Amino acid sequence: MVRGNFDGSGNEGEAFLLVRSDGSGFAPFVRLTTKGAGAPQLFQAEATNPGRELPTEGLKLVSPGTYVTACGKGYSCGPDEKKSVTLTNDGIEFFKQEGPSRLIYWDSRNDQISEVWLSD
Q1: Residue 19 CA, distance from chain mean position
Q2: Would you tell me which of 35, 43, 85, 92 could form a disulfide with 104, CB atoms 3.0–4.6 Å apart?
């Protein structure tokens, strides 16, 4: 689990991996407690992954700053894919050991969790 101020509310949020009770799959989730929102909000940050991959996956806190995406590093880009992302709040790196990683962050313009590939 990682903790940080993901949405700029000043409140600490949490990111963690939840595993299905039968072990068949898992996904990263983000819990935010925004001022005035009442109960914490829970977001599934990505589609469910096969359970067999869990031992090689991890989460890491990412500090505010500018990050070059996989697209910006010369990997193939989708039609609306960003070449870099600038975070004004903490973010989360969801990674596979010796494999690809994604940046999960709060998109304040669209008021939602977003993600972008950092490496392939």
Answers
A1: 16
A2: 92
Predicted TM-score (pTM) of the model is 0.89
Using one digit for the tens of pLDDT, what is the confidence trace for 29-65? 999 986 666 678 889 888 888 999 999 999 999 999 9
What tokens does 77 get?
């880009």
Q: Which tokens belong to 31?
A: 């819990």
DSSP-derived letter for residue 22 is T
Instruction: Tell me the two tokens of residue 10.
Output: 């000043």
Q: Report the alpha-carbon distance of residue 63 to residue 94 in Å, rounded.
A: 14
- Asked if 71 and 83 count as a contact pair (C-beta separation under 8 A), the reply is yes
Nearest of 94, 92, 74, 91 to residue 83 by alpha carbon: 74
φ, ψ dihedrals at 115, nearest 5°: -145, 155
User: pLDDT tens, 81-108?
Assistant: 899 999 999 999 999 999 999 999 999 8
